[in-house]
Design brief:
alpha+beta; globular; 13% strand; 8 helices; Beta Polymerase, domain 2
Length: 186
């Protein structure tokens, strides 16, 4: 009898399955709140934020079709051309959920990378053994910088504080990223 305990949550399993499919088609990283949750912070979320490398429409159509075959569905549309042209290509996100769940959480919010900071994070993305998840995250310093400099809600500041407690942080890197964020905001 196998008595191995599976400590992964529904959110963890959803993220791993989705990321496994994405990885077959393009580079990605997970950012924002799920990063803190995956590192042990106790709080709820309904969505996971994902940035993917910008890909041509033909490649996106293949990716979308595989997601559908693997029992995901997109909230905005079933038509991959509409999703690509009206959402991703215009800087908007699209959201996928598990098929047949009446659009119930969890959701994967997917956006194309834009700007140098997103491209840099695609190059420096990391798997963190502490999470026991086989997925790529943005670097911890980038997550902290965005939460402290751009998002700034109490939830985001608490996420950043949690990540600071469990990692040795490169404060110089956080300051550099915050400067880049301020340039973008101008």
């Amino acid at each position: 009898m196998n008595r191995e305990i599976d400590n992964k949550t529904i959110l963890d399993k959803f993220a791993e399955k989705f990321c496994e499919i994405i990885e077959r088609h393009t580079k990605y990283f997970i950012c924002s709140g799920f990063t803190a949750i995956a590192h042990g912070r106790t709080r709820g979320t309904e969505d996971i934020d994902m940035i993917i490398e910008k890909i041509p429409i033909e490649k996106f159509i293949q990716l979308h079709k595989e997601l559908i075959r693997e029992e995901f569905e997109c909230i905005q549309s079933d038509n991959p051309e509409v999703l690509f042209e009206n959402y991703l290509n215009t800087g908007l996100s699209i959201r996928y959920v598990q098929a047949g769940k009446n659009f119930a959480p969890p959701e994967m919010e997917v956006k194309f990378a834009k700007g140098e900071l997103d491209k840099e994070q695609l190059k420096t993305r990391k798997r963190y053994p502490m999470t026991s998840l086989n997925i790529y995250f943005s670097p911890i310093e980038a997550t902290i910088a965005f939460k402290e400099e751009s998002l700034k809600s109490q939830k985001d500041l608490d996420d950043a504080r949690h990540l600071r407690l469990i990692y040795q942080i490169d404060e110089g890197e956080i300051k550099r990223i915050k400067r880049e964020i301020r340039k973008i905001k101008r």
